[in-house]
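Quick start: read one record
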Amino acid sequence: MRISVKRLVVAFPSTADAMAADSILSGLPHPGRLIPVPRTISAGCGYAWKDDLQKKETIQKLLADADIETDGFHECDFMEREEASEHETNT
């Protein structure tokens, strides 16, 4: 069954920033992933980082410490399998 889940989406002004963010954020426990930028967001490049909303402050700090520019932090709804959203809320 699929349900609507709010996720954090971080947009980037360049592909280089997106790739640098992927390199850093992939090391987090239960990491998110790079996705195509959702149509509801305008960004300089075609990539965004999708992750749990609870990780926003951690992600902001890691990206700021690494001098990685963003085009903003957004909350977006995604249709996901129910099992996936249950796993993320139990961790």
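The longest helix spans residues 15-25.
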